[in-house]
Amino acid sequence: xxxxxxxxxxxxxxxxxxxxxxxxxxxxxxxxxxxxxxxxxxxxxxxxxxxxxxxxxxxxxxxxxxxxxxxxxxxxxxxxxxxxxxxxxxxxxxxxxxxxxxxxxxxxxxxxxxxxxxxxxxxxxxxxxxxxxxxxxxxxxxxxxxxxxxxxxxxxxxxxxxxxxxxxxxxxxxxxxxxxxxxxxxxxxxxxxxxxxxxxxxxxxxxxxxxxxxxxxxxxxxxxxxxxxxxxxxxxxxxxxxxxxxxxxxxxxxxxxxxxxxxxxxxxxxxxxxxxxxxxxxxxxxxxxxxxxxxxxxxxxxxxxxxxxxxxxxxxxxxxxxxxxxxxxxxxxxxxxxxxxxxxxxxxxxxxxxxxxxxxxxxxxxxxxxxxxxxxxxxxxxxxxxxxxxxxxxxxxxxxx
Length: 401
Ligand code: PMP
Hints:
- This protein is α/β, with parallel strands linked by helices and 401 residues long.
- The chain is built from 16 helices and 13 strands.
- Strand 5 (153-154) and strand 6 (159-160) form a beta hairpin.
- Helix 2 crosses helix 12 (293-302) and helix 7 runs parallel beside helix 8.
- Its cofactor is pyridoxal 5'-phosphate.
């Protein structure tokens, strides 16, 4: 026998495995509401016009395919940081943000996990919301951290358990590491209000916690990327030396290009240079350097004010379509006479709707109606269209009454 013949079959990924099952399904009614990737009202993936334009500009430049540096393309990182922290952010003027290009948001989280395990020690706890994006848990575990959960979502109100959240932040040992979703919390679609963010920032400060923002949906939540960066900027204004993972998968529709950034706000430029040097030491043996295609596209768009403005409108159109499908799905369910409250469909924000459906109900809907979404009841609103919303509502209604 070989090492290979001893290997057991691994379980399918809870989200990507769903896509595999969907692809195998031959029923014409099938609907995919699993993966968080945007679809137009025609149900097809969307390439933004601004991205097409950037591709054209890029092609005309006839660039070469040399390696990027370990930290990626400097122009991209600069624009990416301005996008998150704000063009006129003091921390950027003072050159005290260490920033590197990463393999999208996932890569940023992993690099951060590795850095923490290296400097805080193997088994250092990282507190993540309960629930959180499923991949957060193995990302940080595999980095060598111990994943602990803080209270976030209250199934009774289908909303934020703010008191529980504050209690858990308070109860954690001082100087702990906390992961927060910057906006459009995945999977719940439940975000703190501005007042709640401000209170949380104050408590995090008092507890000397290190805050790590995961920002995968800037622009996708409200349709306005400035608004969606509010929490990040507030924490920085409050003097937090935050770390930040950014992804351009959703807001630019660049999923497969793996384009994102990791940054750390430092006390001064010298500290930022040291942090950058350590990030390089983490990255180099992992994947040497990041891909350049997506970085070039984002750079073309964000370095041109006219293209940026056009992008902004396109991003808003995606967010608006999702918001209108929320309204539509909710009113369909209400029109059918559902006894449950579906108010949370419209109060939640971002790509996902956390329906409150039980795993049993989810499996029944999958079996009977061929509608695929995760067992925790999370629906990707991006897959809901004017032509399938009624079918989805009816199928949910049939199972829930
Ligand atoms: N963080 C969160 C909260 C997400 O929802 C996602 C995407 N599903 C990511 C990070 C990472 O996505 P990507 O690696 O494609 O940027």
